[in-house]
């Protein structure tokens, strides 16, 4: 299985990039994990929010194939403990799934077209975090899930 984190907008904070890269490197021992960044839209200052979400949605959907299992990282999604998330990942792997794609949307969320395509929504927290921090938090939680599945001493319950 390949797990992709699809992001709208780049992370320009070098410290966050380095930390996320550390967990991405650790994940490479367990799963094919990649990060795909959709560049920020240009000239959004005077753009209507609905139009911005629609344009970002079009870019997201261009990156998704019909066979991908699409998961939106969305504050209205299902919440998991780290153990439950590792179980959820294991079930996706056991199902024979080839591509699992997690998406972090733009600053205003997702378009209706993206919501119609989604297979599941997952929330990392009820709190709001910057898109730059979500990349780190998600990558760490994914590594934690694989460390649980592989009985490594990383996670303590």
UniProtKB/TrEMBL annotation:
Transmembrane segments: none
SUPFAM superfamilies membership: alpha/beta knot
Single GO MF descriptor: rRNA (pseudouridine-N3-)-methyltransferase activity
Organism: Psychroflexus torquis (strain ATCC 700755 / CIP 106069 / ACAM 623)
Function: Specifically methylates the pseudouridine at position 1915 (m3Psi1915) in 23S rRNA.
Residues that hold S-adenosyl-L-methionine according to the record: 73, 105, 124-129
Cellular-component GO terms for this entry: cytoplasm
InterPro entries xrefs: Alpha/beta_knot_MTases, RlmH-like, tRNA_m1G_MTases_N
Subunit structure, as described in the record: Homodimer.
Record carries keyword rRNA processing: yes
EC number(s) reported in the record: 2.1.1.177
Keywords: Cytoplasm, Methyltransferase, rRNA processing, S-adenosyl-L-methionine, Transferase
Highest taxon, organism lineage: Bacteria
Pfam families, alphabetized: SPOUT_MTase (PF02590)
Reactions catalysed, as given in the entry: pseudouridine(1915) in 23S rRNA + S-adenosyl-L-methionine = N(3)-methylpseudouridine(1915) in 23S rRNA + S-adenosyl-L-homocysteine + H(+)
CDD domains in alphabetical order: RlmH-like
Subcellular location per the Swiss-Prot or TrEMBL entry: Cytoplasm
The keyword Disulfide bond belongs to this UniProt entry's keyword annotation: no
Family: Belongs to the RNA methyltransferase RlmH family.
Name of the molecule in the record: Ribosomal RNA large subunit methyltransferase H
